[in-house]
Design brief:
4 domains; binds magnesium ion; alpha+beta; globular; binds adenosine-5'-triphosphate
């Protein structure tokens, strides 16, 4: 079966070139795992006994560049396909839970496979066939993520592996093998030693994966390590008849209900982060969270900044959280007003978040879903007509308003008023006409 794996011929060519030149060489890691699962590989990694300078010499006529110079990886671009070629290596001791103290080259593929994190990631494809020293193939069949070797030791060496394990389980919809899961829980706190950028990359992949909800519910510690502000939400009883679940469980269920884009999923996970600090009990013992949407904004912002999420994603997520209680109306006017304020895409995401939020309460929704669907149809209709203007698309701008003699806050007031009138069809988005209106504005002030 392994002979018929659907390799990209260009990746195979790189390995065969090395093989023909007398080096040991193999495709390794994620691409072997994905090929055995008949999934398209994310990227191609090759490992070889050839030293970096020998790889350079062999591929002298092929476009290539040095990556990860510290470890001597050379990316060979074969017919447009980048293949990362790394010399077999063995790692020394780890003393800081994140990086080996030294890395040494070795001539044995087996040593290189032994340093890899999980059995399903520790297989190799040599031109002669599959190399599977740690039972990766059997674990693929059992749909299990299992450490290579002693799990406590492997997580102790590099704590990022805890999050990688969760990410892989969510991405492939696999379970974590029992001993691996137990050790992973013990070592999650050591993620604090790992660079936040690496944590961020794995965490975003985790939350955008198909199995994210199940993994986040089984391992709340993973989410709390990435976003410590979520800590108080875990197990927080809402004491409210509209809410069947604790705040964290409800948040994860909301995440499962939105599309897998980082901003939406982060917003879903953090939308109620303001609840624990705004909790009050009324006279009949019912819990309330007045103003939690606003209270959540600084907490979410800090959490996302701390995770080093890129700015555009952070701002979008925070906007969605801030507005997640926006009252929705089924009218063209409502759709137009909010599309102009937030932009069409953000407004559609907000409606999606609100729908998932309602569905994740575990109680009847009182017709909210149907209302959200109608509001969405209004936004889509405006968009289809090209009527969802934003200030940026208006045919006049701030400079025109200044030239017309307006100043200070009057500039924004005038432009927004024109935008509303254009959106409602009273005026065309025509520069000459709008300039005349700006002049009237001036006279009217
Ligand atoms: P994908 O490319 O689909 O994200 P991958 O398994 O290829 O998954 P990469 O981050 O590209 O993930 O890593 C390539 C390979 O390097 C892995 O399959 C694994 O064998 C090894 N690896 C990566 N990170 C670690 C680590 N922290 N500890 C041990 N081995 C690792
Ligand atoms: Mg990879």
């Amino acid at each position: 079966m392994a002979r018929t794996l659907p390799w990209d011929p260009r990746a195979l060519w790189v390995v065969e070139q090395l093989d023909r030149a007398g080096y040991d060489a193999a495709l390794v890691g994620g691409c072997v795992r994905d090929a055995l699962l008949s999934l398209p590989p994310h990227d191609y990694d090759a490992a070889t006994s050839a030293l970096p300078e020998q790889v350079e010499a062999l591929f002298a006529d092929t476009p290539r560049f040095a990556t990860g110079s510290r470890y001597g990886t050379i990316t060979v671009v074969a017919g447009g396909l980048p293949v990362e070629v790394t010399t077999f290596r063995r790692e020394g001791d780890y003393s800081d839970h994140r990086r080996p103290d030294r890395v040494e080259f070795t001539s044995r593929l087996e040593d290189d496979l032994a340093r890899r994190d999980f059995t399903i990631n520790a297989m190799a494809w040599r031109p002669g066939g599959l190399v599977d020293r740690f039972g990766g193939r059997a674990d693929l069949e059992r749909r299990l993520v299992r450490c290579v070797g002693d799990p406590d030791r492997r997580f102790e060496e590099d704590a990022l592996r805890t999050l990688r394990g969760l990410r892989l389980a969510a991405q492939l919809d696999f379970a974590l093998e029992e001993d691996t899961a137990a050790a992973l829980r013990r070592h999650l706190p050591q993620l604090s030693h790992v660079a936040r950028e690496r944590v961020c990359a794995e965490f975003l992949r985790l939350i955008c994966s198909p199995g994210a909800g199940r993994v986040l519910l089984d391992f709340p510690g993973g989410a709390v390590q990435a976003l410590p502000e979520l800590g108080p939400a875990v197990g927080f009883d809402q004491r409210n008849p509209h809410h069947l679940y604790d705040v964290y469980t409800h948040s994860v269920k909301t995440l499962e209900g939105v599309s897998p884009s980082p901003a939406l999923r982060l917003a879903a996970l953090l939308h109620d982060v303001g609840k624990p600090s705004t909790f009050t009990l009324d006279g009949s013992g019912v819990g309330h969270f007045y103003g939690h949407d606003r209270a959540g904004v600084p907490l979410a912002d800090r959490a996302l900044e701390g995770l080093r999420v890129d700015r555009a994603t952070r701002e979008r997520a925070v906007l969605l959280i801030a507005r997640h209680h926006l009252p929705v109306e089924d009218s063209r006017k409502w759709a137009g007003r909010w599309a102009r304020r937030l932009g069409t895409r953000a407004l559609l995401e907000l409606l999606e978040l609100k729908g998932a939020d309602g569905a994740a309460c575990g109680t009847p929704d009182g017709g909210q879903r149907a209302l959200l669907d109608r509001a969405r149809a209004q936004v889509l209709a405006l968009e289809a007509e090209g009527a969802c203007l934003t200030l940026r698309e208006l045919a006049v701008d701030g400079r025109d308003a200044l030239a017309a003699g307006l100043s200070g806050p009057a500039v924004g007031v005038a432009l927004n008023a024109l935008l509303d009138r254009v959106a409602q069809g009273e005026l065309n988005n025509d520069r000459e006409a709008l300039l005349r209106e700006l002049d009237h504005f001036q006279e009217g002030m």
